[in-house]
Amino acid sequence: MSLSSAISTAQTIFSNTGLQSAALSRNIANASNPDYSRRVGVTSIDSNGAQRMTIERTYDNGLVKQTMHSTADSAAQDLLQQKLEGVRSLLGGNDYETAPSTYLKTLRDNLQAYATKPNESTLAATVISSASDVANSLNSISSEIQSMRGTVDQEIGDLIEELNGLLDQFGDVNNAIKAGTTLGRDVNNELDMRERYLKQISAIVGVRSFTRSDNDMALYTSDGTMLFDVDKRNILFLPQPAYDALTQGNPLIIDGAEITAGEGGNTTAKGKLQALLQVRDSIIPTYQNQLDETARGLIEMFQQNDMTGGGADPLPGLFTWNGYASGDTIPVTGELVPGLAAVIKINDSLVKSKGGDPTLLRDGGYDVDGLGIAATDYLGNVNNEAGYSTLLDGYVATFEADRDFDIDAFLDARTTIGEYATGSVGWLEQLISESATAKDNKQAQLTRVVEALSNTTGVSLDEEMSLMLELEQSYKASSKLVATVDEMMQALLAAV
To answer: What is the tally of structural domains in the chain?
Structure first.
């Protein structure tokens, strides 16, 4: 090797060592940054045969895409589980102390006790109180879940605002990457930023990415709708000001296509938006239908029938509803009445605090318009017997009788009122159980994918320390080579 070649080699080593040292320093500084990809020095031979080193960013396209997919799945499942737990909390938690099914059992037991001792007016008052608890439970839960739908609507709006902000930031960094790639600049930091935005966007709406020339990237939703191409696409959504059982939520439109809601306890939702749509448009409305059918079944069970055989229409009995007026008919058997759970109440004629008489439950014939005037055609205890229990026994029997329910509530179409109310709780519990299992599985999958990506593209301090020692040895060897060449030059000059 000539002296000039030796000097050139030493200079190359110094240059490469400097580049690698700078990359190593940056790696160590970002060792705890989950959005940082490790920088490595790559040596190549140029067209003149000279060695040159460039610093490149470690990247695994397959693992990045899998991370985006798992992030969308896990975020949707986490949010669904949170909302389901919120619905369960309205029922009194795991013990369901405030669920309609719990109050129904108490009403049945108290009614049985009153039927055994129909002359006990205190038992009559107890039955009315128990029935009031049932009605209040249906009113309260119905009101709360519709309020929850309104909250979900606002959360959808907030997420869309966040998504638009992320897409703006994604667009800015994507433009910087395209410009830097065209000019041959180092865009590794911008690539890290873009990947971070991709993960954040994936948690809101599942996305698929497509990289084109100059590192330009386009984004599609998981169902193929264009989300970003050069610029973000329009996202349209109008929250409802208030919700009740009859309110339909407005659609979420991206680039002219409506985004569908997730399905099932192990939700098919990709990202939080689809999970929120599932809660707003599927889970809560279905549960509302079950509450409404429970309310309708109760009104039907305790209706007052014409005792004369004249065929007059039944009248509301123990249970009626706000807005009822004389001449209105009892809801049709097995046919859903949306929002009935929100307005069911106890007949004023039986409520002592409203001037009513609880013992009319035993006798029948009470009016249902709040006036407390006996309707004689519906009177059972015509002889005013203190031990009369025929109607009470009939009410008790109705708890064990099968009746028809609307299939739109997704429960048994024919069963007892108690089993129906319990089945509603079971339906919710099954969803929660499926969701909890899916949440654990999807979180575990996300954890494994993130670990795999970290192992591939993340920083290991042990590896960096080992590389630091290698660079130190390389630097020492280069220094020694330069020193040797210097001695030889000195000797040559001295000889001359």
So the answer is: 2
